[in-house]
Design goal:
alpha/beta; D-Maltodextrin-Binding Protein, domain 2; 2 domains; two-stranded antiparallel sheet; 13% strand
Length: 166
């Protein structure tokens, strides 16, 4: 049983006639009828009762409609999962931070990271700007949270959205 034949079958059922389904699928009516016969042959039973006005599902056709919808949903989900695999983030995140009101923000972000990626181990180290700079330069810190003013021209940096209030 081929996925494309299940898609074809569901389109026929949704459209109500083979001719309307053929138009929607951009194929000829005889080609669509051949695909339907191929599907019926593969399952060993008649799926639709054809008339000039529209098709009707047989009991086997009703069963296949339900199964085909489930199968195609799983195929779609599988394709999405394979196209966008989950991130496999792991390792240590060493954060240096000067004590500030932003400490709470960092703790919140770390909690979210660890919830989404349990293999990540986060270590927060408190220190002044000199400690942070030395740690980043020595690669013992992944990143640092500095309190302004501090010369960050040697580093990639972003401005935090909070202003410290002491």
């Amino acid at each position: 049983m081929e996925i494309r034949l299940l898609e074809t079958f569901l389109t026929i059922v949704e459209e109500g006639t083979i001719s309307q389904a053929a138009v929607k699928l951009h194929i000829s009516q005889p080609a669509l009828s051949r695909q339907l016969r191929e599907l019926e042959k593969s399952v060993g039973t008649q799926l639709l009762i054809r008339s000039n006005k529209q098709v009707q599902l047989t009991p086997a056709g009703r069963t296949l409609r339900t199964r085909a919808q489930d199968i195609l949903s799983m195929v779609h989900t599988t394709r999405e999962e394979l196209a966008h695999p989950p991130l496999n983030i792991h390792g240590q995140l060493r954060i240096g931070a000067a004590e500030s009101s932003s400490f709470g923000l960092i703790a919140k972000v770390i909690a979210e990271i660890q919830q989404d990626h349990p293999p990540v181990q986060a270590i927060i180290q408190s220190g002044n700007g000199y400690f942070l700079e030395a740690g980043i330069d020595a690669s013992t810190l992944t990143f640092g949270l500095f309190i302004e003013p501090w010369d960050l021209s040697r580093y990639k940096s972003i401005q935090m959205p909070e202003t410290d209030v002491w």
